[in-house]
Amino acid sequence: MGKINPGVRVRVPASTANLGPGFDSLGLALDLYTWVEMSRSEGKTTFQLYGEELEGKGIPLDKSNLIYQVAQQVFARAGVEVPELSVSMYSDIPLARGLGSSASAIVAALTAANALIGSPLSDDELFQLASSIEKHPDNVGASLFGGLVVAYWDGIRAEHIKVAPDERLEVLVAVPDFQLSTEKARHALPKEVAMSDAVFNVGHSNLLVAALCTGRLEMIRLAMTDKLHQPYRSALVPGMAEILEGAADHGALGIALSGAGPTMLALSDRDGGRKEELERFLREMFGRHGIGVETRWLKPDTEGPRVEVLTETAGSGTFMQNLKGEIRT
Q1: Which of 77, 66, 69 is nearest to 117 (CA)?
Q2: Which of 286, 216, 210, 214 is nearest to 247 (CA)?
Q3: Burial zone of 236 (CB within 10 Å; 0-12 exposed, 13-18 middle, 19+ buried)
Q4: Helix (H) and strand (E) counts in the chain
């Protein structure tokens, strides 16, 4: 390992998981981002949080912070001691909305800490760490590798294959104005499911991956249906049942709960010509239940993390000034 770098800045994409039937095994990176700047501190560890998704959200500003805890796992794995850090962070990704905010933070901490000490850990080692921390590989895999990730984690080791999303795919997310913790969403699931439901999901998940790999977009509508988690979580998201049933009739290629929710995610053909109709439908369905919603048109991110090693002679500017032009307005 070489010397510790003066500092690093990383940008990590958001993600959506499951895509309907691919429970804990399918993840897609999206072009919302978390930025983390990290350097070794000569004094005590400090954190600077920026943006409405982070400020005032009760995120710890001491060594109990997730970024610090994950970074220390990287240092320990590499046999390096960096006990004090200076960390700045900004995020476009809404917290507890099913868009992989925790996974992007984990991946940002892993990639930043690794780059800070000269990148001694491979991408696979980072993936193993990320999966063991998150306890499933779909979100962290998508944020770490970009694109569509098909993955599994058996509690010991994670494996993945990255698929380049079809260039025609666009993603519409409808983000309700309430949070839903992953823990609460998981508690809604039964401990056992019928064999027929398991077989249903295996077939549909396989079909969805095949459709996305071959560009058979017309197959997505059928393939994105699910019986393992969405029926049990629909009570937690008012309007979800109606959206799942009707979105395809308003221009969606397919519709699903994004991760653990409450965000609803629709895949769309950029050439389909029904974007406004689909967006209006999602807003109306949530509105019928008195729920405000923010809709955003996104694209798959195929790059994964972007890492910049800072130098002592680099240009001046604050953390936020250096992000100007990158942040979604």
Answers
A1: 77
A2: 286
A3: middle
A4: 11, 11
pLDDT at 182: 84
Rounded Cα gap, residues 319 and 99, in angstroms: 24
Task: Go through the domains of the chain in sequence order and give each one's CATH number.
Answer: 7-164+305-320 (3.30.230.10), 169-298 (3.30.70.890)
**Residue 73 · residue 125 · CB < 8 Å:** no
The pTM (predicted TM-score) of the whole model is: 0.93
Report residue 291 as tokens: 């729920």
Contact (CB, 8 A) for 108 and 10: yes
**DSSP label at 238?**
T
CA atoms within 13 Å, Cβ hemisphere of 43: 4
How do residues 131-140 score in pLDDT, each as one tens digit? 999 999 999 9
Whether the ω angle into residue 262 lies within 30 degrees of 0, i.e. cis, is yes
Instruction: Please state the length of the chain.
Output: 329
